[in-house]
Input
Amino acid sequence: MDAFANKLGLIGAWCGQNKYLNAIKNAFQNFMPATVSGAIGVLWTNVLVNETTGLGAIFKPIMALKVLNPIFSAMQYATISCITIGVTMLVASEIAEANGETGAYPAVLGFILWMMVTPTSFAAKNLTASYIDKAGKSHAFKLADFITVTGDAAKNKISADSFTYSGILSSYTAATGLFTGLIVALVGMEIYNMFRNNDSLKIKMPDQVPPGVSRAFEVLIPTCLTCIVIGAIGLICQLATGAELNAFIFNVVQKPLQSIVGDNIFAVCIMYIIISLFWCVGIHGNNMVGAIKEPIFRPLLYANTAAYVAGATQKNIPYVMNLTMLLMFAEFGGSGVTIGLVIAILIFSKREDNRTIAGISIVPALFNINETMTFGIPLVLNPILDIPFIIAPVVTMTVGYILVSSGFCPKVVLEVPWTMPPVIMGFLATGGKPMGAISQLIVIAISILIYTPFLLAYEKYQAKQSAE
Output
């Protein structure tokens, strides 16, 4: 056991010190208030002030607040639909800080580098519009289907291809472009750091020049060279594959990862076994895998959010699993779903020390914080209780997957804070659906059943130890 713990400790230490994993993890954590704000915008426009799908359908007076809907729609777009921009800038800032850089400029440069590989000119004929009929079937149309060029325009070779527009598509700013932003920020800032540390590339200004101006000239050449290199990478990708960098990374990296891990219950269960194993030796398992989990599962969540905002039926919401769904079914009450152990102790335990720890832990557990239980019982290096600690989230995740796949539980469509209490979390994450709350009650009951026999065995062991 000690040898195994030491090996996990080494892996944990490496993950904790890796600047790339830390940069990704910190970026997502720092952007979380924005995405939760966006989820509030979705709740307002789709669950509360909505006369078709929300409270407005049964309580008409609330529709008086419809005048405020543009505020919340804009809030959703500026956060969830623009997550790639925010996370790219935050990752660039984190990498620069790890490399000894200070100030806000690296975040700006990260945005510039991402923009250099992001298309901004498009054929208007490819614009699409769609609607979902009463049977839940989606119908899509291209603008090209309705363009007919005649008269002088046709004589002067004006065609549907002649109509273009400029801008940044939401498909690039939203979660589908997330991996591109992460890769560009990581690679671009390391290239910038290499040029930045080359003294021969620094323009030295006289001492009497203000520090801000002097620093601007100092990073001028490194900035220019970094932009050229990133631009060249984008161009080479375009020439070699026929696809722009965003599409190439999405098809080669992001989409396969989401298929292999993101929509695969077996891979998810293995991930939670790894998370629990880290916890069993005293290492925060979620922190260890967060940098891998977030980029894979967060885009799936926002794809569901986009479909939900567009009015898609449950059948047409694309993904069963996503980031909030994992929180809802495998992390409620904290890692190892230890709220089940807390409740089991309060119901079945006869030992005052265990009941005291459970009493202290119940409030944190309601907000999905389990350190008081993990280190209080303790669960760390506890062979008896570590078994349900590893098994429980795997079982509850599998049950949750079955509940959602079968249609018993609505698909998870909204991000909620990770500290949202269970049951309330299930209600909000599914777009205000009672069956989401009931589904969480089911898995809470299952977690209690899993922990109870091991708790009783552990208390027998404690009694034996006390007798000796």
User: Anything to note?
Assistant: The chain has two domains: 2-120+167-261, 263-467.
